[in-house]
Amino acid sequence: MEFGLSLPPLFVVFQFNPVQVTRNRSLTYSVPAGGGNSLRDMHRKYDSLSELRDAQQVVVQEEVIGLEVRLDASGRLDEGDTVTEQFGILPQLSTLELMVHPKEESLIGRAVGALLGSPGGFSFTKRPNPPLTLFVWGRKRVLPVNITTLNITELLYSPDLNPIRATATLGLTVIEGKSMPYLYSKAMKEAMSVLNLGNVADTANVVVPG
Predict the structure, then answer these.
(1) Which helix (H) or strand (E) holds 141?
(2) Which of 65, 83, 123, 162 is the most exposed place for a label (fewest CB within 10 A)?
(3) How far is the first Cα of the chain from the last one, in angstroms, to the nearest whole number?
(4) How many C-beta atoms surround the C-beta of residue 80 within 10 A?
(5) 45 Cβ partners below 8 Å, 6+ apart?
(6) How distant, in Å, are the alpha carbons of 5, 9, 115 from that of 108?
(7) Cβ-contact 10, 93 below 8 angstroms
């Protein structure tokens, strides 16, 4: 779902839950100035793990999400949906594609702008960059993301070559900061972590070396 009001609005609902969603975050550790030639050399200088933790330099990358979305017109065709009968899943695929195009390239926005006397085009979020997107994965994860990759594989067509079955593989980078959607999702993650304390009794079965 696109963040912000603009023309045309961009919104895609998953028909089926993806089989899997991958979530990756990478961390890079480096040696501070004067810490030695390598991390291994630096680590040997510290007896205290607490001091070592604070001394080494760490760069935490933003979370990267990957998922494959399956789109199929069969259900709506069985229901006699007029739009699906005429265009298949092309409207959904087109919306996904527009999510990686700059909004200022919108032909609809320019046409509305001309009607309103704005020759430069009309859009509430007219920008040279693609729109920001909200990845809504249930009630507890509403994440602002940049779409970094989009791969569409069309699998089946109607007689007039409208796609009626396809998969779309998406790569997303979470925009971490002070935005309300991200802070909400982070608060939910921390709340879920607190609930995990209910399993604290299980630590009795874990042997921790002294």
Answers:
(1) none
(2) 83
(3) 50
(4) 8
(5) 35, 36
(6) 14, 11, 11
(7) no
The whole-angstrom separation of Cα 116 and Cα 121 is: 9
Structure tokens at 149: 């990759």
Give the number of residues written for the chain: 210
Beta carbons of 174 and 65 less than 8 angstroms apart: yes
Are 4 and 145 in contact by the 8 Å Cβ rule? The answer is no
Rounded to an integer, what distance in angstroms lies between the CA atom of residue 92 and that of residue 76?
A: 13
- Tokens 């089926």 locate to 16
Where exactly are the structural domains of the chain? 1-24+64-192, 27-60
pTM: predicted TM-score of the whole model, two decimal places? 0.78
Contact between 195 and 207 under an 8 Å Cβ cutoff? The reply is no
pLDDT digits (tens, 9 = 90+) for 132-169: 888 988 889 999 999 999 999 999 999 999 999 999 99
- Tell me the CA distances in angstroms from 158 to 80, 85, 97, one per residue in order: 15, 9, 20
Pairing, β 64-72 against β 142-157: unpaired
* Cβ contact 133:147 at 8 Å: yes
